[in-house]
Amino acid sequence: MTAIKKIIQLGNQWQTQDPFLFCAYHHDHFPAGNEDLGPKDSITGRNIGMDFANKDGWNMYHGTTVPGFPHHPHRGFETVTIVEKGVADHFDSLGAHGRFGKGDVQWMTAGKGVQHSEMFPLLNSEEANELLLFQIWLNLPAKDKKVPAHYKMLWNEDIPIVEEDGISIKVIAGTYVNVSGPAPTPNSWAADTKNDVNIWLIKLAPKTTFTLPKNTSNVNRSLYFYEGGHVYAEGYEIPKMHGLHLHAAEEFSMENGEHESHLMLLQGRPIGEAVVQQGPFVANSQQEMNEAIAEYRATEFGGWPWDRHDPIHPKEKGRFAIYEDGSEDIRV
């Protein structure tokens, strides 16, 4: 039996398997930044407020001055935001805020509801600003859909990287060869090791062979090839921007081609519950979805305490987090 169940082509939103909902992929080659930390290049001709056309290799997304996503709500799931290149400025309705990037990961449990913004300030004023960001939506089981919102930083320097024979594995969640990633948020599906949630970033040197060992049959496993040339597995020549849904109960080996390759692994035991999704809300039934929307209209999940819908930090700020309780975590 082969390990490959399905090969999919990748775009800006990657198809995932339970317990994941999807993964958003953003790779922008922004121009130099202006005094407002937006692009120096003209934004004329872009659909400002809804710019996803990738004109000139970058997008403004929902931003009007700075690229990014002004304040918006989430409920009923988690976001795991990996910023491998560039930076993101975070603000939320709990009063927490920060700046992270250059390999950092933000793990946010939306739970019963939170608003947040995520903007991408262009800090380099004399050269291009590259952004490479993944946002993974990880579902919550019904029992945890209404837990209090919570966010946590996994700083790059605290995330282990396993190096062996041309293979580099950044263990954001789960375990690889007895090396475990940082703990996720307390109510996460990933917090229980029995759920076998793994999120890895994999780098392969040219001509390297990489093997995923067998796991149990009730674990969903997907591998996403987003940068490189070609990889070879089970008789297939697979180009970049393709993903593989795998039978976890089968060993899977792949050989890298002539170029360095980058992949992401998502794995976890499925939650196995009904999913009703409407925009940024996830519920288990339509009635629960209607209740979530009504609650947001009535409360706005605590409102928005900041003076603009797309706040950013000053250019000179480094990487830091200030949490809901006022505690600070300052990084260089």
TrEMBL record:
Superkingdom classification of source: Bacteria
Domain Pirin C-terminal: 202-302
Gene3D superfamilies per record: Jelly Rolls
InterPro entries to which the protein is assigned, alphabetical: Pirin, Pirin_C_dom, Pirin_N_dom, RmlC-like_jellyroll, RmlC_Cupin_sf
Family annotation (SUPFAM superfamilies): RmlC-like cupins
Residue intervals of the Pirin N-terminal domain: 64-138
Pfam families documented for this protein: Pirin (PF02678), Pirin_C (PF05726)
Annotated coiled-coil segments of the chain: none
Protein family according to the UniProt entry: Belongs to the pirin family.
Protein name as catalogued: Pirin family protein
Species of origin: Sungkyunkwania multivorans
